[in-house]
Write a structure and sequence with these properties.
By secondary structure, the protein is mainly alpha-helical. It has four helices and no strands.
Length: 162
Protein backbone atom coordinates (compact mmCIF):
# COMPACT_ATOMS: atom_id res chain seq x y z
CA UNK A 1 0.00 0.00 0.00
CA UNK A 2 1.71 3.10 -1.19
CA UNK A 3 -0.95 5.78 -0.47
CA UNK A 4 -3.10 6.45 2.51
CA UNK A 5 -6.17 7.70 0.59
CA UNK A 6 -6.36 4.59 -1.55
CA UNK A 7 -9.47 2.42 -1.20
CA UNK A 8 -9.12 -1.37 -0.92
CA UNK A 9 -11.43 -1.54 -3.95
CA UNK A 10 -9.33 0.74 -6.13
CA UNK A 11 -8.19 -2.12 -8.34
CA UNK A 12 -11.80 -3.20 -8.92
CA UNK A 13 -12.75 0.28 -10.08
CA UNK A 14 -10.58 -0.15 -13.20
CA UNK A 15 -12.13 -3.52 -14.12
CA UNK A 16 -14.60 -3.24 -17.03
CA UNK A 17 -18.18 -4.28 -16.28
CA UNK A 18 -20.06 -6.18 -18.94
CA UNK A 19 -23.83 -6.04 -18.84
CA UNK A 20 -25.66 -9.21 -19.82
CA UNK A 21 -27.75 -8.68 -22.98
CA UNK A 22 -30.50 -10.87 -21.52
CA UNK A 23 -31.14 -8.40 -18.71
CA UNK A 24 -33.08 -5.25 -19.47
CA UNK A 25 -35.74 -3.05 -17.90
CA UNK A 26 -39.11 -3.72 -19.52
CA UNK A 27 -41.00 -0.89 -21.12
CA UNK A 28 -43.94 0.44 -19.08
CA UNK A 29 -47.33 -0.92 -20.11
CA UNK A 30 -49.78 1.65 -21.30
CA UNK A 31 -53.44 0.93 -20.62
CA UNK A 32 -56.02 1.97 -23.16
CA UNK A 33 -58.17 4.86 -21.95
CA UNK A 34 -61.48 3.02 -22.43
CA UNK A 35 -60.71 -0.07 -20.25
CA UNK A 36 -62.71 -0.51 -17.07
CA UNK A 37 -61.88 -3.23 -14.47
CA UNK A 38 -65.52 -4.05 -13.62
CA UNK A 39 -68.61 -4.19 -15.76
CA UNK A 40 -71.41 -1.68 -15.21
CA UNK A 41 -73.51 -4.30 -13.36
CA UNK A 42 -72.03 -6.87 -10.99
CA UNK A 43 -75.30 -8.77 -10.51
CA UNK A 44 -74.01 -11.50 -12.84
CA UNK A 45 -71.23 -12.27 -10.37
CA UNK A 46 -73.65 -12.96 -7.49
CA UNK A 47 -74.53 -16.49 -8.46
CA UNK A 48 -74.82 -18.79 -5.45
CA UNK A 49 -76.34 -22.29 -5.50
CA UNK A 50 -78.65 -22.22 -2.48
CA UNK A 51 -79.39 -25.92 -3.01
CA UNK A 52 -76.07 -26.77 -1.32
CA UNK A 53 -76.81 -24.82 1.85
CA UNK A 54 -78.82 -27.51 3.79
CA UNK A 55 -76.14 -30.08 2.99
CA UNK A 56 -73.39 -27.81 4.31
CA UNK A 57 -75.37 -26.90 7.43
CA UNK A 58 -76.01 -30.57 8.33
CA UNK A 59 -72.36 -31.43 7.73
CA UNK A 60 -71.24 -28.54 9.92
CA UNK A 61 -73.60 -29.43 12.77
CA UNK A 62 -72.51 -33.09 12.71
CA UNK A 63 -68.87 -32.00 12.64
CA UNK A 64 -69.40 -29.74 15.65
CA UNK A 65 -71.21 -32.52 17.53
CA UNK A 66 -68.32 -34.90 16.79
CA UNK A 67 -65.76 -32.33 17.96
CA UNK A 68 -67.74 -31.72 21.15
CA UNK A 69 -67.94 -35.48 21.84
CA UNK A 70 -64.21 -35.84 21.26
CA UNK A 71 -63.51 -32.90 23.58
CA UNK A 72 -65.65 -34.49 26.33
CA UNK A 73 -63.86 -37.84 25.91
CA UNK A 74 -60.47 -36.14 25.94
CA UNK A 75 -61.32 -34.17 29.09
CA UNK A 76 -62.57 -37.34 30.81
CA UNK A 77 -59.43 -39.22 29.81
CA UNK A 78 -57.15 -36.43 31.04
CA UNK A 79 -59.11 -36.18 34.30
CA UNK A 80 -58.87 -39.94 34.94
CA UNK A 81 -55.18 -39.89 34.08
CA UNK A 82 -54.57 -37.04 36.50
CA UNK A 83 -56.58 -38.80 39.22
CA UNK A 84 -54.58 -41.99 38.63
CA UNK A 85 -51.32 -40.05 38.99
CA UNK A 86 -52.58 -38.48 42.21
CA UNK A 87 -53.70 -41.89 43.53
CA UNK A 88 -50.29 -43.42 42.75
CA UNK A 89 -48.57 -40.48 44.44
CA UNK A 90 -50.75 -40.89 47.55
CA UNK A 91 -50.04 -44.64 47.59
CA UNK A 92 -46.29 -43.99 47.36
CA UNK A 93 -46.53 -41.47 50.21
CA UNK A 94 -48.59 -43.91 52.29
CA UNK A 95 -45.91 -46.56 51.78
CA UNK A 96 -43.33 -44.11 53.12
CA UNK A 97 -45.50 -42.50 55.83
CA UNK A 98 -48.72 -44.41 56.57
CA UNK A 99 -51.57 -42.10 57.43
CA UNK A 100 -50.03 -39.12 55.66
CA UNK A 101 -52.48 -37.16 53.57
CA UNK A 102 -51.09 -34.12 51.68
CA UNK A 103 -54.34 -32.14 51.91
CA UNK A 104 -54.91 -33.18 55.53
CA UNK A 105 -53.62 -31.58 58.68
CA UNK A 106 -50.62 -32.48 60.73
CA UNK A 107 -49.97 -36.05 61.73
CA UNK A 108 -50.74 -36.55 65.40
CA UNK A 109 -49.41 -39.63 67.12
CA UNK A 110 -52.08 -41.78 68.67
CA UNK A 111 -51.61 -44.06 71.64
CA UNK A 112 -52.14 -47.68 70.74
CA UNK A 113 -53.70 -49.86 73.39
CA UNK A 114 -52.52 -53.43 73.61
CA UNK A 115 -53.21 -56.40 75.84
CA UNK A 116 -49.67 -56.46 77.23
CA UNK A 117 -49.27 -56.17 80.97
CA UNK A 118 -46.99 -53.13 80.77
CA UNK A 119 -49.64 -51.25 78.76
CA UNK A 120 -52.09 -51.78 81.63
CA UNK A 121 -49.52 -50.26 83.95
CA UNK A 122 -49.99 -46.91 82.14
CA UNK A 123 -46.55 -45.50 82.74
CA UNK A 124 -44.63 -47.86 80.50
CA UNK A 125 -41.56 -47.46 82.66
CA UNK A 126 -38.97 -50.18 82.99
CA UNK A 127 -36.57 -50.97 85.79
CA UNK A 128 -33.27 -51.07 83.90
CA UNK A 129 -31.24 -48.20 82.62
CA UNK A 130 -29.87 -49.78 79.43
CA UNK A 131 -31.68 -50.23 76.14
CA UNK A 132 -31.58 -54.04 76.26
CA UNK A 133 -32.69 -54.45 79.85
CA UNK A 134 -35.76 -56.68 79.97
CA UNK A 135 -38.99 -55.15 81.17
CA UNK A 136 -39.88 -56.29 84.68
CA UNK A 137 -43.47 -57.18 83.85
CA UNK A 138 -43.45 -58.32 80.22
CA UNK A 139 -40.00 -59.79 79.78
CA UNK A 140 -39.65 -58.12 76.36
CA UNK A 141 -36.58 -56.29 75.16
CA UNK A 142 -37.16 -52.60 74.57
CA UNK A 143 -35.34 -51.06 71.58
CA UNK A 144 -33.79 -47.65 71.87
CA UNK A 145 -35.36 -44.86 69.85
CA UNK A 146 -33.63 -41.78 68.52
CA UNK A 147 -35.26 -39.64 71.18
CA UNK A 148 -34.02 -41.99 73.92
CA UNK A 149 -30.49 -41.70 72.52
CA UNK A 150 -30.78 -37.92 72.48
CA UNK A 151 -32.05 -37.77 76.07
CA UNK A 152 -29.29 -40.08 77.29
CA UNK A 153 -26.63 -38.09 75.44
CA UNK A 154 -27.91 -34.81 76.88
CA UNK A 155 -28.00 -36.36 80.36
CA UNK A 156 -24.36 -37.50 79.99
CA UNK A 157 -23.32 -34.01 78.83
CA UNK A 158 -25.16 -32.44 81.75
CA UNK A 159 -23.65 -34.82 84.31
CA UNK A 160 -20.16 -34.36 82.85
CA UNK A 161 -20.34 -30.55 83.04
CA UNK A 162 -21.48 -30.45 86.70
Amino acid sequence: MSGQGQSPYAAASRAPLIKSPSLHVPAPVEMPPDIHPLPDSVIDYFVYPFTLEPHIITLESSRRATLAAHAVRREAYLRTREEEKERRKREALKRIAPGFEPQGGLLVPTKRFSTDLHADNGSGSHSGSGPDTPDTQGGHNRTKSVMDDLVEHLAKLESGSS
